[in-house]
Design a protein that fits this description.
Layout: H1 12-65, E1 67-70, E2 74-76, E3 79-87, E4 94-101, E5 113-121, E6 132-138, E7 146-149, E8 158-167, E9 176-185
Antiparallel strand pairs: 1-3, 2-3, 3-4, 4-5, 5-6, 7-8, 8-9
Pfam family, one: N_methyl
Transmembrane segments: 12-37
Keywords: Membrane, Transmembrane, Transmembrane helix
């Protein structure tokens, strides 16, 4: 019968060293997997924000193309807004449209805000229109994101320039994309032409902002 020599096999110290090395290797591997997962998750979130933003801006281009007049941008108590009059291509009804970028979202988040829009018939009050989200994830700008250029000697059309940046997550985190887009109201009517107003009022598209 062969007997093991006293120095054959593994000592307790060697086992502990092996376990320690294995733990370090597994820790590094797990950390790498988690980092890759977080990176992919953030990239997916950024892609969703960018897709929603692109969809919103495409929709705006379609709406403003039918605009008869774009009113000057307004600095609201909480954010900025701009209005225009268009014939809704969906139902053929002339409507007022208001874009609003609040300085803070409803949940109090001042790092990322949501561009919203509402519509109402030109014969009614804006209280009949409810804001709905167009795209989330915008960085609150330091100045107005809306700049209106009325028709002039150079152009027969009203124009609206939208300047915004998007990003995913908290401020300073996630990819950011800047936009500077100019939309042209191809159905602009002369400034002297009166627009439809609600009964008893002389100002088109009157509105009140949410409290």
């Amino acid at each position: 019968m062969n007997r093991l020599r006293d120095d054959e096999g593994l000592t307790l110290f060697e086992v502990l060293i092996s376990m320690t090395i294995m733990a370090v290797v597994m820790s590094v591997f797990t950390g790498g997997v988690l980092l890759m997962y977080r990176t992919l998750n953030r990239a997916d979130a950024d892609a969703v924000v960018q897709l929603r933003t692109t969809t919103a801006f495409t929709r705006l281009e379609r709406e403003i193309r039918y605009a008869k007049r774009i009113f000057p941008q307004v600095a609201e108590t909480n954010g900025w807004s701009v209005r225009f009059v268009m014939v809704d291509p969906d139902d053929g009804v002339e409507k007022c449209v208001q874009l609003w970028l609040p300085a803070t979202d409803n949940d109090g988040d001042a790092a990322r805000v949501t561009l919203v829009e509402r519509r109402w018939p030109t014969t009614g009050a804006s209280t009949a229109g409810t804001f709905r989200a167009l795209a989330p994830g915008f960085v609150p700008p330091a100045a107005t994101p809306f700049t209106v250029q009325p028709l002039d000697a150079v152009s027969n059309f009203d124009r609206l320039t939208v300047t915004l940046s998007t990003g995913q997550g908290a401020a300073g985190r996630g990819a950011e994309q800047s936009y500077n887009l100019t939309y042209t109201a191809q159905n602009t009517v002369p400034a002297a032409q009166r627009l439809t107003t609600p009964p008893g009022l002389s100002t088109p598209c009157p509105y009140t902002m949410p409290a």
